[in-house]
Amino acid sequence: MKRKNIFKFVFFIILGLANSFLAFCYFFVQLVIVYYKFARAKIPIEVNEEFEFKTLEPLVSPLIAGEDEIIIYKANPINQFNEFTAIAHEFKDDLQSGIFFSKALFEKLELEENQEVTVKVGEIQRTLKVYVENQIDGMIALISTFEKELDTKVFFENTRYAVAKVMRD
Question: What is the pTM of this model?
Answer without folding.
Answer: 0.59
